[in-house]
Amino acid sequence: MGIRNRLETLLEDKRVLVVGAGGIGCELLKNLVLTGFKKIHVVDLDTIDVSNLNRQFLFRREHVNKSKAEVASAAVQKLQPNVNITFDHDSIFNGDKFGISFFKEFNLVMNALDNRSARNHVNRLCLSAGVPLIESGSAGYIGQVSVIIKGQTQCYECTSKPAPKTYPGCTIRNTPSEHIHCTVWSKHCFNQLFGEVAIDDDVSPDLNDPENKTAEEATETMMNGNGHTAMEEGNTNGFHTNGVAAEESNKNTVVPSTRKWAEESGYNAKLIFDKLFHDDIEYLLTMKDLWKSRKPPTPITFANVTDEAQGGGSTEMTDDVNDIMKQWTLKACARVFVESVDALKTRKSGLPEGQLLSWDKDDDDAMRFVAAVANLRAHIFSIPGKSLFEIKSMAGNIIPAIATTNAIVAGMVVVEAIKVLRGRKDLIRTVYINRQPNPRGQLLMDDDPYPPRKECFVCSSDKREVFVKVNLNVMTLKMFKDKVLTGHFSVQSPDVLVATTGNIIISSDPDDDFSELENRTFQENNIADGAVLEVDDYLQDLKFSAVLFHDENQKDSFVVEQDTGAKPGESPTEEEASEAKRKRKSEGEPSASEGHDEESQAKRMRIAAE
């Protein structure tokens, strides 16, 4: 029997779960069916957005607003009609459907997720169910694949994780709530006007926002039968660049791109200002469902920006546009906007035909444009502004999604999956994708997986304690549940009792009414400094103790002093550990199982021939 036949025999009865059908998920599903996997289940709550089409290759324009899990399953079914692939268009956090018993139905779980909370949740369920998990991720040109096996390797939460740096497109375009959302949008705006345009860079209101239930009404408000905006008849600068919305609203209307319109207007900075910060905002306001539980944005025009119209912010503002350490006033932002648009227009016109400007945080004109636009948008959405220095720091850290990186990551997931399903757990590797080849010419670098950390409060066999500083006079039990337990520790269904009294203060049972108790502060519930809370998440089969310490400096915030039992500096973050491995590999240093260990090398080479 040949290698291919042996592989097909091995895989035909193995049932695998794929969580996530986005960038990595599309590549992974394609790889699985072409490798010979026959029984695949896919879970993803997301629907397809226009911005997904440039890198999630299983989706087409006609699939926009449809379930990713459903469309991806149907697409790969066409590649291999004999594959039994099923899907759930649902949240992996749905405990009624996706509990421990559900995970036990699979031989292997593969994560293709883009957020830490969901990764934590799947990690815990796989540990509780005793099912191997392959975790994967990418950030620009780097990526990583790791295998998680209970008792043999580190789990996903054994090391601390860096803060995520990607943001949902509908949040960026419609409902920003943080200044970083405005900063991302301002960089997209630069590309729309002066740089290379990607589909993800659309700055117009997103009519396909899942929260917008009045799409038809909004579309009718945007365009009348003559192709002008309904806000101001004959106004040629009030168009919106949401191509899907425009096509559906008026088949005879061709809406120009932001670039084309700006060029035809001679890059008139005041017209561009009013289009971005007034007309588009007025259109957003017609999407009424977005503002039922949010403060609506406030449109501004260039003409009504005065000295008194200043954005919010905790720092002292200045009209000195050369001061990079203080937040500019709204009028100063408008001035910088006009100056930077004029400067960038001049530079663009001097380029050879076909060439465009590229954004660089060290390009003064480009950076000042982004800073001004970000603060103007922040003012509109009642978000405190920031200084140019702060915005420069944020803007320089935004990481794009790269389709080829996702493809490489997905390929390595399947390689490790075959090792696990063959029972060759001694051959599993943690694989890293590097930005540049090392002296050996390697872009892919691998190493032995770390063993479990005995201090990890998730996978350790010992019961762990975490230490949390809160203001007992301010923080309510509901705030503690939402911000600390769910927000920080990713606990989904917590039951919490006070260790000394045995009194339950938070319950996961929907029939229990703890609303009055949860709205009281710790102090009002007679929970004092040093109290020990026993936390039990039945859904994740997770238990730990939370020790509370009173801190007057905290308001409704908190500080986790220790969440893994590790001493300060004892354990590197995942980013630090990965970078250390990359550095060692790039310098040509072998890992413990490489170099002169010919036996281990030969053993790994035999994997393809078994």
UniProtKB/TrEMBL annotation:
Its GO CC terms are: cytoplasm; SUMO activating enzyme complex
Q: Name one Pfam family in it.
A: UAE_UbL
Q: Which InterPro entries has this protein been placed in?
A: ThiF/MoeB/HesA, ThiF_NAD_FAD-bd, UAE_UbL_dom, Ub-E1_IAD_1, Ub_act_enz_dom_a_sf, Uba2, Ubiquitin-activating_enz, UBQ-activ_enz_E1_Cys_AS
Positions of the THIF-type NAD/FAD binding fold domain: 11-432
Arranged from A to Z, the UniProt key words for this protein are: ATP-binding, Metal-binding, Nucleotide-binding, Nucleus, Transferase, Ubl conjugation pathway, Zinc
List where Basic and acidic residues composition bias occurs: 594-610
> Which segments does the entry list as coiled coil?
none
Residues covered by region (Disordered) = 558-610
Q: Does the keyword Glycoprotein apply?
A: no
Membrane is among the record's keywords: no
Binding locations of Zn(2+): C155, C158, C456, C459
Positions of ATP binding: 20-25, 44, 52-55, 68, 91-92, 114-119
Question: Which family, according to UniProt?
Answer: Belongs to the ubiquitin-activating E1 family.
This protein's assembly is summarised as: Heterodimer.
Write down what this protein is called.
SUMO-activating enzyme subunit
For this protein's source organism, the top of the classification is:
Eukaryota, Metazoa, Ecdysozoa, Nematoda, Chromadorea
